[in-house]
């Protein structure tokens, strides 16, 4: 029996082990299945991640390629920008040089016109000749200021204008501006009326030539675009504002008027009305732009009121200080200051000027002032004369052949008997850069063409007083 029990126990234990092995085998099979499933999932995840990484790598490569292209484009753009900047700077230099040269070429004949008109005023003229000479002088002055504004584009674009402060008669300015346009108005059969408020102070402080420029432009435009009826210029006293006086000035016409859609752009540079009459009359389109800038610099603005087909009214308000009762410091009719200014006559003077007409005018002006001069027709001759003779005063044109006035002044300052002379630049230029260049060349002062006898007297009294 014990042997049978042992056998049973051994079988039982064996069966138990078999069951355990079967259970373990099932577990191992399940584990293997789970592992295989996990491996499949891992492979799928791996493939997905690999695909994602591959796609991201491709996108990164594409982005890198695009970035490289953009970098190349940026470098190319920067290079083009640099070239454009250099080109713009070069163009600006060329423009400045062109403006300076054109200013010189235009203002040189203007120098002769205005200078000889001043000398003509000293001669014996009958009343009619004097009147004609005066009208030509007024027109020449206006033309000169228009030339200055048109040539000095940098000044127009920046809005930087130099204004004088001097005594003037507003009534005289309005009369002169009107008289310039009377012939054209009469030719068209138009009336031109001035309504001037006598309550306006007789003398005011400001820039009469800038004001005359504005008035002349507004009046000439009114005449140009009016075919029937006429023009009315009004100056109305607006009372005192502290130490200043208010004056409302307006120019009205019965002309074609201006369309509403064109009013906002009328004061833009190079813009004109699209009306046919504007096309027929022509013009640069700069006049009203310049006028608006001038009036703004005077602390006001031009207001336009217009009805198409019925006329226009341009008005602005001036706020100016009252001037002295007498016209002290203003130029008399013959163009020469009778102010008792004295200066030395015993000085040696050289005039360097390549334009024969300007040279003759300079000689006449200096002869009137009882001054005697030597002359040089170019910069090289001026240097040679100054090397061998001691001059007290040299008037030096800035643009001359062989050597410019700048170059000649630098050489004169470096050596020779006239290295300590007073050198006055005679310039037709209106650019600040040119004026800076004149001073850097060692010149003491400058006078602008057209040469004015009063400016010569100013130079003489400043550097060679009695």
Helix content: 55-70%
What overall form do the CA principal axes indicate? elongated
Class by alpha and beta content: alpha/beta
Question: What low-confidence regions span 5 or more consecutive residues with pLDDT below 50?
Answer: 273-284, 326-339
**Helix-strand pattern:** HHHEHEEHEEHHHEEEHEHEHEHEH
Strand element count: 12
| Major β-sheet annotation | 7 strands, mixed
- Which value, in Å, is the CA radius of gyration? 43 Å
Number of helices: 13
* Strand percentage: 15-25%
Distance between the termini: 165 Å
Mean pLDDT: 80
Describe the structure.
This protein has 466 residues and is α/β, with parallel strands linked by helices. Helices cover 56% and strands 16% of the residues. The chain has 13 helices and twelve strands. Strands 1, 2, 3, 4, 5, 6 and 7 form a seven-stranded mixed β-sheet that branches. Strands 9-8-10-11-12 form a five-stranded parallel β-sheet, sandwiched between helices. Helix 11 links the parallel strand 10 (393-397) and strand 11 (422-427). Helix 1 (2-120) packs antiparallel against helix 2. 29% of the residues are buried.
Q: What's the topology here?
A:
Layout: H1 2-120, H2 127-151, H3 153-158, E1 166-168, H4 170-187, E2 191-196, E3 204-206, H5 208-224, E4 230-241, E5 244-253, H6 260-263, H7 276-281, H8 287-297, E6 303-307, E7 311-322, E8 349-352, H9 356-368, E9 373-376, H10 379-388, E10 393-397, H11 405-414, E11 422-427, H12 432-440, E12 445-448, H13 453-463
Parallel strand pairs: 2-4, 8-9, 8-10, 10-11, 11-12
Antiparallel strand pairs: 1-3, 3-7, 4-5, 5-7, 6-7
Helix pairs in contact: 1-2, 1-9, 2-5, 4-5, 5-8, 10-11
């Amino acid at each position: 029996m014990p042997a049978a029990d042992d056998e049973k126990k051994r079988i039982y234990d064996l069966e138990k082990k078999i069951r355990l092995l079967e259970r373990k085998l099932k577990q191992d099979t399940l584990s293997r299945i789970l592992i295989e499933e996990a491996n499949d999932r891992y492979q799928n995840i791996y493939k997905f991640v690999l695909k994602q990484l591959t796609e991201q790598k491709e996108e990164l490569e594409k982005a890198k390629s695009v970035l490289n292209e953009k970098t190349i484009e940026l470098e190319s753009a920067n290079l083009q920008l640099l070239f454009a900047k250099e080109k713009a700077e070069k163009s600006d230099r060329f423009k400045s040089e062109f403006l300076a040269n054109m200013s010189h070429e235009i203002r040189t004949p203007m120098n002769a016109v205005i200078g000889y008109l001043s000398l003509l005023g000293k001669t014996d003229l009958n009343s009619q000749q004097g009147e004609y000479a005066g009208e030509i002088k007024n027109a020449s002055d206006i033309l000169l200021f228009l030339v200055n504004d048109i040539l000095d584009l940098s000044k127009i674009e920046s809005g930087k204008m130099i204004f004088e402060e001097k005594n003037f008669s507003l009534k005289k300015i309005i009369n002169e501006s009107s008289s310039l346009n009377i012939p054209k108005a009469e030719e068209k059969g138009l009336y031109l009326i001035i309504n001037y408020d006598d309550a306006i102070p007789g003398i005011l402080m400001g820039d009469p030539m800038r004001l005359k420029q504005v008035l002349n432009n507004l009046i000439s435009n009114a005449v140009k675009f009016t075919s029937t009826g006429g023009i009315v210029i009004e100056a109305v006293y607006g009372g005192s504002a502290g130490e200043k006086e208010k004056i409302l000035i307006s120019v009205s016409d019965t002309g074609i008027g201006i369309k509403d859609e064109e009013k906002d752009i009328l004061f833009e540079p190079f813009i004109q009305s699209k009306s046919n009459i504007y096309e027929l009359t022509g013009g640069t389109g700069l006049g009203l732009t310049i006028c608006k800038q001038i009036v703004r610099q005077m602390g006001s603005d031009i207001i336009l009121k217009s009805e198409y087909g019925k006329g226009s009214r341009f008005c602005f308000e001036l706020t100016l200080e009252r001037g002295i009762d007498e016209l002290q410091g203003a130029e008399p009719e013959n163009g020469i200051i009778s102010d008792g200014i004295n200066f030395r006559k015993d000085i040696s003077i050289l005039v360097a000027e390549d334009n024969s007409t300007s040279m003759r005018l300079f000689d006449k002006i200096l002869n009137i002032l009882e001054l005697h001069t030597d002359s040089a027709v170019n910069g090289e001759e001026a240097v040679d004369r100054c090397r061998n003779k001691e001059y007290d005063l040299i008037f030096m044109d800035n643009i001359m052949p062989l050597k410019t006035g700048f170059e000649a002044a630098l050489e004169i300052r470096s050596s020779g008997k006239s290295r300590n002379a007073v050198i006055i630049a005679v310039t037709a230029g209106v650019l600040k850069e040119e004026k800076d260049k004149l001073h850097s060349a060692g010149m003491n002062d400058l006078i602008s063409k057209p040469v004015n006898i009063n400016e010569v007297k100013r130079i003489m009294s400043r550097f060679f007083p009695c």
